[in-house]
Amino acid sequence: MNVGKPLSGQVALVTGASRGIGLAIARRLATMGARLALSARDAKRLEGVALELAGSGAEAVAFPADLTRPAQVASLAERAERQLGPVEILVNNAGVGYFGPAHEATEEQWDEILGTNLKAVFLLSRAIAPGMIRRGGGHILNIGSLAGKNTFPGGAVYCASKWGLLGLTGCMAEDLCSYGIRVCAICPGSVATDFSPHAGRDTSKMLQPEDVAHAVAMVLTQAPQSFVSEVLLRPTRKP
After folding, report:
1. Architecture of 11-233 per CATH?
2. Which residues contact 203 (CB under 8 A, 6 or more apart)?
3. SS3 (DSSP) at 134
4. CA–CA separation, 174 vs 184, rounded Å?
5. Which of 21, 48, 73, 126 is the most buried (most CB within 10 A)?
């Protein structure tokens, strides 16, 4: 292993990579030597990220996609592997939120949140896992949330998606571990991004996107005989 570049040559597919947590993860994996397939809905912003990472010496390719559309998920997996090679690291990070009472949510909001936060993870993992099985190894990291373990007012739809994600992740880990594939859920508390409102909170005390990226790097560099199945991230001080 290249100590300075422990992921040298490995292909990593990161969803939701155009901003926030996904961008921080993409930047961290680039410094570790990974070859990056980047996906998000905002094509212009995503291309800017790919150019930024390429400017720092990384190999990064933008693959815009709407992960609520199954045909685009399948196309993303096929295009990424055709252009960069077999995906050895899959980071399912793309996510959306609705924060309000369940009885006020629309069916369209339910479908968008569950489609992005849960179904898309199932579809993309299903597309990538067979290749990992054939090769006898790989990493699937699902970016969850402490909202997958806790309830709070206005969180019903979002929590439902994240509780479901943890169940999916745990069962995938059981199904795939015998093939040398390690599936992990990384669950941060509130992170200082534009994902959700933080009115009245001191964002300097909140988790930062780079904290989540650090957890991803830790999981990807664990010894081959160990298996981190879940990471819970909390701030050291209440914001």
Report:
1. 3-Layer(aba) Sandwich (3.40)
2. 192, 239
3. helix
4. 11
5. 21
Alpha carbon distance 21, 209 (integer Å): 5
pLDDT at residue 195, rounded to an integer: 73
Q: What DSSP string describes 148-182?
A: GT---TT-HHHHHHHHHHHHHHHHHHHHHGGGTEE
User: Could you tell me where the beta strands, DSSP code E, fall in the chain?
Assistant: 11-15, 35-39, 60-62, 87-92, 138-143, 181-188, 230-233
Give the number of other CB atoms < 10 A from CB of residue 152: 11
**Of 238 and 26, more confident:** 26
Residue 217: per-residue pLDDT = 98
Cβ-proximal residues to 12 (8 Å cutoff; 6+ apart), any chain: 29, 34, 35, 36, 37, 87, 88, 89, 90, 91
> How does strand 60-62 pair with strand 138-143?
unpaired
pLDDT of residue 123 exceeding 80: yes
Q: Is 12 left (phi over 0), alpha (psi -120 to 50) or beta?
A: beta
Beta bridge partners of 89: 12, 139
Copy the structure tokens of residue 130.
Answer: 């067979």
Residues with active-site annotation:
158
Predicted confidence (pLDDT) at residue 199 exceeds the cutoff of 70: no
- The Cα–Cα gap between 206 and 202 comes to 7
For the chain, what is the largest distance between any 2 Cα atoms, rounded to a whole number of angstroms?
53
Domain boundaries defined on the chain: 11-233
Q: Are 16 and 38 in contact (CB under 8 A)?
A: no
Decide if 191 contacts 208 (C-beta within 8 A): yes
SS3 189: coil
